[in-house]
Amino acid sequence: MIEGNNSASVTVMEVSPRDGLQNEELVFSPDQKLKLIKAAISAGLERIEVVSFVNPKKVPQMANAENVCAGLTDIHEAKLTGLVLNERGYQRLRNTCLHEAGIVISSTDTFGIRNQGMDLVRGLDFAKSVLRDGQQTRFPVQVTFAVAFGCPFENAVPEARILRMVEELVEFQPVEIGLADTIGIAGPGQVRRLFARIRERFPQVKLRAHFHDTRNTGMANAYAAILSGVDTIDSSIGGIGGCPFAPKATGNIATEDLLYMLETSGVDHRIESPVVIKTAKWLEQVLGKSLPSSILQVG
């Protein structure tokens, strides 16, 4: 157990099939994506972000989302999530076998308009609409605030804005709220303070953290988030990933690196690290390049 966190375990959300692949030049086939997803499941990862329902002309790597979902109809060992950026994407997701919708809205106007054609106000309205539908149909919906710690176009994001965004959405009962350091600009002190403020004001809300390692602070930020009582940490096998709309942002924290940190900190995760490492090595072969994972680099 990490001192400061009352839980002896942390949930890991595997995002390599979506956030991991979306920034790669090589476009994976549906069969390759299914192989990656099923390898993650075999490792014991219980939450996996498998696809996003976006315009394939803008994000070619996320084409064929429905085909990927069709290969997952018999999966019950893990909760499968799809990312949606608008109402059309949400309706596409609801027509598949996925277990949960993941909404992303931007914490700044400029990034929101560039990423999904919505400023902050429209993004919040979209989130409320989907959350309301989720309440009525009893379908789980979670929300992630992109660029929550800093924006490539507007720089710093006021903590008070993030708190107001949480306050606007809590009455619609999202299954969790996630903060994403989309461009990898946050430091651990900032992470711990902001999550602690949310936890203090909204103790009923489950929290998730999503970090990129652009400035080599991703793992420290994950540790700080856990200290603040965050329930779930996103990571990507091999450390692949990035956002096409976030200039110079690097990959996610690597799942195998996160597992090592959790293990050495006495935090239970119930995931088989050797299977994750084997999958990361397979990704290296398919992508034809070395991946950012520290565990892979040390052998």
What can you see in these coordinates?
- The protein is an alpha/beta fold and 299 residues long.
- The chain has a single domain, classed as TIM Barrel, CATH 3.20.20.70.
- Helix content is 41%, strand content 15%.
- The chain has twelve helices and eight strands.
- It has helices at 16-20, 30-42, 65-70, 87-94, 109-116, 120-137, 159-170, 188-201, 218-227, 255-264, 273-287, 294-298; strands at residues 11-14, 47-53, 79-84, 100-106, 141-146, 177-181, 207-211, 232-235.
- The protein has an eight-stranded parallel beta barrel, surrounded by five helices.
- Helix 8 runs parallel beside helix 9 (218-227).
- The longest helix has 18 residues, at 120-137.
- It is globular, with a radius of gyration of 17 Å.
- The two termini are 27 Å apart.
- The model has no long low-confidence stretch (mean pLDDT 94).
What does the secondary structure layout of this molecule look like, with pairings?
Blueprint: E1 11-14, H1 16-20, H2 30-42, E2 47-53, H3 65-70, E3 79-84, H4 87-94, E4 100-106, H5 109-116, H6 120-137, E5 141-146, H7 159-170, E6 177-181, H8 188-201, E7 207-211, H9 218-227, E8 232-235, H10 255-264, H11 273-287, H12 294-298
Helix pairs in contact: 2-11, 8-9, 10-11
